[in-house]
Structure formats: C-alpha cells, structure tokens
Amino acid sequence: MKNPVIEVNTEIGRLRQVMLHRPGRELENLMPEYLERLLFDDIPYLKIAQKEHDEFAEILKSKNVEVLYLEDLVVESLSEKEVLNSFVEEFLYEAGIKEEFNIIALKEYFLSLDKKEMVLQMMAGVRKSEITNFEKVHLAEYLESDYPFLIDPMPNLYFTRDPFACVGDKVTIHRMNTHTRNRETLFAKYIFNYHPKYEKIAHLYERQEEFSIEGGDILVLNDKVLAVGISQRTDPNAIEKFALNLFKTETTFEKIIAIDIPKQRTFMHLDTVFTMVDYDKFVIHPNIEHTMKSFVLEKKDKNSLKITPQIGTLKEILESNLKVNGIKLIKCGGDSVVDAAREQWNDGSNTLCIAPGEVIVYSRNYVTNDILDKEGIKLNIISSSELSRGRGGPRCMSMPFVREKI
C-alpha cells in the first residue's frame, strides 16, 4: 500500500513524519524596541536555541520519525522559473515594498542568491545596511529612517504549527491574525500549490479568506471529532467556513467542538492551555477546568451547519463528544497556583504526543513533568532555556504530516 502524503486523524497516533523549522538568523534581528511588533517577549540566544532545537529533532529521529524542514520544502516548490519569480514578487508585495525601483533592486538581490540561501534570507529579514541602492521616495520612508529593516524578520517561524494544519488527508492554509505572522503562510501557499509531492493536496481554507484561523487552535482529537479554539487569533466566522468546507468533502470527521477560551495572550491558542497525551488523558491549564462555553458544529446539509451550544466543564464536554468515560485532566503545575502560572508561561500544557501515552516536553516544566510521569505518561525531555522564550512548546514547534491510525 502506498504511503499517504498527508494523514493526521488523531493527536496521539504514532508520529511518522513531521515538519520543523530550525531557528535561524531571524532571531538575531530581534531588537528590544520592536519586540511587540514582532510578537516576542524576549530575545533568545540563537546558538543555544539551535542546539536545543537540534536535540528536539534528534529525539524525533530516534523514534523513527521522518523530519522535514520548512525551508527545504519551499525550495523544492520553486523549481519552475515562473513560479520562482512569482514567489519573490509576492513576497516583496507582502513585505510592503511599493516603489518599482526598490522592487527591482530587492528582486535582483534575492534572485542572485542560491535558492535555499534566498529563502533563509527572506525568513531572516533584510537590514537596510544589506542593500545599498534602496531609494527613499515617500515621506513615511524618511520619517522611519531610524528603523533598521527594509523587510521585517519572521522570528515566529519555528512555531510551524500555526501557518497551516494537516486535517485528515487535507490541509488548511491560514489567514493569520497579525500581519507579522500572515506573511509566513506564503510559504505554505507555494508548498501546497507547487511542491511535486504536495501540490495535489485538497485545501480546506485559504490564506486570502477574510477571517483568521491559526493552527495552534486546531486539535484532531480522533478520526471523527476535531476541537477548534475560539481564541484571540481564531475567529468564529473562520471556524464556520472551515467546517462547511470540511463537511463538503469526503471525510471521516463528523463534528467540530468550537471551544470558547479567553481572548488574551496567555491563552493565545487552544493548544497553549490544552493538549492530548493519551486516549483518555489531557494536560490542561487549571483555568480552563471550570464550566465553559462550547459549540458542536455538524453537517446539516450541503451548504449549512447544525450548531449546538454546550455548557459544561471541559471534562464533561470531552466525555460527551468523544464517548470516553473517565477522562483525566492533568493540571499544569498541579494544585499550586504559583507553579501553574510559572509553568504555563513556559508552555507546560503544550506537549507533543508522539505515540499514545508518550510525549515530548520542556525540561524547565519539572513540576508538570513529574505529575505526568506519575500518571504513567512516558516523557522525552528536551532542553528549553532559549526555545521557550518565544512562548511556544513542543506542539507549537511541530507540524505532523503523517500519524499512524489508531
């Protein structure tokens, strides 16, 4: 039987293929003055962040997981000259380069590079000191003369979970909530339109849609049920459009649980407060343990949905929809308010399940890790002093392409 190109029907099926992005020079273009603009709270030390990320990748490989890298997939998608030219032009447009002279200068610069070097340079951003023949034309360009970049870096790229998501044998390409991150989805567009292996994958959402949705809010609980967070970065209108598109296709999925979570940075995505670690076990932020609001979306007919509100605890909502009794919610930080807050800040709830009951976690969340161990969860622990500064954990840093069915 031919191996599937994309197949993700569960959060916990044994992981067989995953896409990562090793942090690059984009982190060295972070500056204290512009952290908020680039959605960062701190500046990771690149050398150590890369070492930690390599450790992450090596653990995956040791578990017989094939590791793909974002930049390689992009390069492999640009084999045709026309596609390459279109990619560079679209990238410059989305970077806000408007004047024809400057578009030409930057296009020549990018095309003079080896393709992989070009993609990495796009990810890193372009400092004004790197391009000497860039012209100031508009008043705004003179007023921003102290700003050091012609093109902003993309420091969030190592969180590969967000720009797109694999759902069953299909993909959603996202319109992200902020301009800073929405540029990342251009890479997904070219992979899933032009890569020889992935160009025929069906799309359930497109990056030009009006409403935002991000991959950290999409959890494939099993082959019948998805959970999607209504969050700071995923709009309910996007969830509805995604659901309609999904149910029009040939699919095993029967329902989407739209879970309403607080609209704040500490609850950025659903997977920052809630991840699946086994058939009947989830690790959660204690603040979502209480009664909450959710909505079950099901197919009504070809062009409409049946939407059923559900009020209850997260445990009740999960047991009702997954038809699993005795679901265990494992609290990040346990019963300590202090430990929960500290370890949630370092993504103690954001685990990557690589097989039923086996996860990858950050070393610094030792309180939560000890609780998981006592609950019988097998832990693969990675160093995390620098990676965690980006506010994302192992699930955030990975995009599964293939998982075994369970």
Summarize the structure.
Helices cover 29% and strands 23% of the residues.
Could you state the oligomeric state of the chains shown? single chain
Strand neighbour order, sheet with most strands: 8-9-10-13-14
User: What is the beta-strand fraction?
Assistant: 15-25%
Report low-confidence residues grouped into runs of 5 or more.
none
Taking the sheet with the most strands, its summary is: 5 strands, mixed
Note the gap between the termini. 17 Å
The dominant shape is globular
Tally of helical runs: 12
Radius of gyration: 21 Å
Overall pLDDT score = 93
What class do helices, strands and sheet pairing give?
alpha/beta
Helix content: 25-40%
Say how many strands there are.
19
Written overview of the protein:
This protein has 406 residues and is an alpha/beta fold. Helices cover 29% and strands 23% of the residues. It contains twelve helices and 19 strands. Strand 11 and strand 12 form a beta hairpin.
How are the secondary structure elements laid out?
Layout: E1 15-20, H1 46-62, E2 66-69, H2 70-76, H3 81-94, H4 100-111, H5 115-124, E3 126-127, H6 139-143, E4 149-151, E5 164-167, E6 170-173, H7 179-182, H8 185-194, E7 203-205, E8 218-220, E9 225-230, H9 236-247, E10 255-260, E11 274-278, E12 281-284, E13 291-301, E14 304-313, H10 314-322, E15 328-331, H11 337-345, E16 352-355, E17 358-362, H12 366-374, E18 378-382, E19 399-403
